[in-house]
Structure formats: structure tokens, C-alpha cells
Design a protein that fits this description.
Elements lengths: L3 H17 L3 H4 L12 E6 L3 H11 L5 E8 L10 E5 L6 H15 L6 E6 L3 H4 L9 H14 L3 H10 L7 H6 L3 E7 L29 H4 L5 H8 L11 E6 L1 H14 L15 H18 L2
Parallel strand pairs: 1-2, 1-4, 2-3, 4-5, 5-6
InterPro entries: GK-like_C_sf (IPR037035), GK_N_sf (IPR038614), MOFRL_assoc_dom (IPR025286), MOFRL_protein (IPR039760)
GO cellular component, one term: cytoplasm
GO molecular function: glycerate kinase activity
């Protein structure tokens, strides 16, 4: 019979296994491409960007590394060759704009023999922010606050974010020009769609030519006329990009890692899948209900 202490220990070990499955220090090195003939310019953004940059430095001590990544305040990691900037999440700030300009400039400085290594993770939609004209930072902040309160799905929110951004929807890839570009990404979205992870800075925007004004009703009447007009108009396309996009960690991989620990302990796990999304407090209530039912009925 499993005691409460045994159960708590098992849950802790399951959580640790799930985290290890998404830890750049554990998983990133095996996804790196061949070392470049020239420089490796590292760019990117997300809550794991600094940890990913550190892992690249550890894996490639003999490569000419430089570049800039941006992470959330308080998430910086000490690095030697790659610059780490911090900015606000989930609503962008002036530091995000400044850091994103640095990221875009670093990518643009790559030559044909260089490798641009993009490190992308959850939170990048806020941390990699550079509004398209005529939007200003204040406009972008207002839109993001409306999005967070709108009830839109992650996919819908990121369609809007791509439309308003110079860096999302392939913008970072366009900045890299003719240099080889490889993206290493940690997914935090249902389905692991590259265009949804950090709003797809290195992949084409599949909705670039679409009229997105139908989303304005969900965003609310406070959306400015400038923003509404931009939703109606097409955005610059990333063209004929053929992304080398490598998912180094996904929600499903972490779920499976946790499940394996449970099985080893003689507990049969039930995976609810990685497609659940919505308000955490609501999903938490659903999961608590499932747990109560299992405890009561045994199934």
C-alpha cells in the first residue's frame, strides 16, 4: 500500500523526469548541426533562451560563437560568448524592443559561411517584439493586454501577433539573409506547430495573406483602428523559406518521461495528452475532478 509520503516522492520524481526531458543542458547538444566553416551567430528568445545559449556554449567550446538572446527578467544564465538580455513577459516593454533590434542586427551580420543558430522557446512572442509601422510600443502593449484578456486560443493570439510584428512570422529568417539558418525550439503549444511557438520567427506565416479582422470581435471594441486595418491587410511573407527546424523538447516528451517513472513504480499512468489548453484554474478543476473520480471508483 502506497503511503502519502511514497506518493509525494513519486510525484516529485515524475516532475523531475518531465523537467529533465525539456532541460537544454540534457537534450540540446544532440540536435546541433555540423559545426560551421565560419562563425556561429546565436540569436533567439524565450523563457529558456538563456539556458539554451549556455548549453550551446558547453557543447561547442571550439566554435567561434557570438550573438544575442533575450529571456524573461530573472531568467538570465551566465554565458561567456553569447550576450543575454532580459525583458518583460507576458506583455512586452522597451527592453524587449531594444533586445529584439540587437537580435535582428546580429542575424543580419551573418555571412554566407556562417551559421545562424536560432534558439526559440515559450515566451518568445513577448520577448521578441518589434512592431510593424505604424504601430508603436504603446500600441503593442495595449494589443497584448487585450489578447491576454480575450479568451482567444494560443493559435489565434499568435496569428494576431505575427501580423503586427517585424520579427515574427519569418521575420528573423529574413534578417539572416543567405546564411544557413537552423532553429532549435522548445515547444509550449498544443500540436508543436513551429508557426505558433514564439509566433514563428524563423518559419513562414501561413496566414500572411489572410484577412484576420474576424478576430477583432473576440479581442474587443478597444482595439484601435490602426490595428484593425492591419488585421485586414496582408503582411510581408517570408517567401520560399525551407526551414531547418528542430524540436528539442515538447510537452508530449515530458509527459511520456513522467509516465515512465510512474510505470517503473507500478502505477499505471493515464496520459490526457498535450492538446489541453485554456485557463489554468479551469483545467486544474477538471484534473482534480478526474483524480477524485479515480480515487472513489478506482478507474
Amino acid at each position: 500500500m502506497m503511503t502519502d509520503d511514497d506518493a509525494q516522492d513519486l510525484l516529485r520524481r515524475m516532475l523531475d523526469a518531465a523537467i529533465r526531458a525539456a532541460d537544454p543542458a540534457q537534450v540540446l547538444a544532440s540536435y546541433l548541426p555540423e559545426k560551421p566553416r565560419g562563425r556561429c551567430i546565436v540569436v533567439g528568445g524565450g523563457k529558456s533562451a538563456a539556458s539554451m545559449a549556455w548549453a550551446v556554449e558547453q557543447a561547442w567550446p571550439d566554435v567561434d560563437l557570438s550573438g544575442v538572446v533575450v529571456t524573461r527578467y530573472g531568467h538570465a544564465v551566465a554565458t561567456d560568448r553569447i550576450t543575454v538580455r532580459e525583458a518583460a513577459h507576458p506583455v512586452p516593454d522597451a527592453a524587449a524592443i531594444s533586445a529584439t533590434r540587437e537580435v535582428m542586427e546580429a542575424a543580419a551580420n551573418a555571412g554566407s559561411d556562417d551559421l545562424v543558430l536560432a534558439l526559440i522557446s515559450g515566451g518568445g512572442s513577448s520577448l521578441l517584439s518589434l512592431p510593424r509601422s505604424p504601430l508603436t510600443l504603446d500600441d503593442l502593449i495595449a494589443v497584448n493586454r487585450l489578447l491576454l484578456a480575450s479568451g482567444l486560443s494560443i493559435s489565434e493570439m499568435n496569428k494576431v501577433r505575427r501580423r503586427f510584428s517585424q520579427v515574427k512570422g519569418g521575420g528573423l529568417a529574413r534578417a539572416a539573409g543567405d546564411a544557413r539558418l537552423v532553429t532549435l525550439a522548445i515547444s509550449d503549444v498544443p500540436g508543436d506547430d513551429p508557426e505558433a511557438i514564439a509566433s514563428g520567427p524563423t518559419v513562414p506565416d501561413p496566414t500572411a495573406q489572410a484577412d484576420l479582422s474576424h478576430l477583432a470581435d473576440k479581442i474587443g471594441p478597444s482595439l484601435s483602428k490602426v490595428a484593425l486595418d492591419m488585421l485586414r491587410a496582408p503582411s510581408p511573407d517570408a517567401g520560399k523559406l525551407e526551414p531547418d527546424y528542430r524540436l528539442i523538447a515538447t510537452p508530449q516528451a515530458s509527459l511520456e518521461a513522467a509516465a515512465e517513472v510512474a510505470r517503473a513504480a507500478g502505477v499505471a499512468p493515464v496520459l490526457l495528452g498535450d492538446a489541453l489548453e485554456g485557463e489554468a484554474r479551469e483545467l486544474g478543476t477538471v484534473m482534480a475532478g478526474i483524480a477524485k473520480a479515480v480515487a472513489r471508483h478506482g478507474t
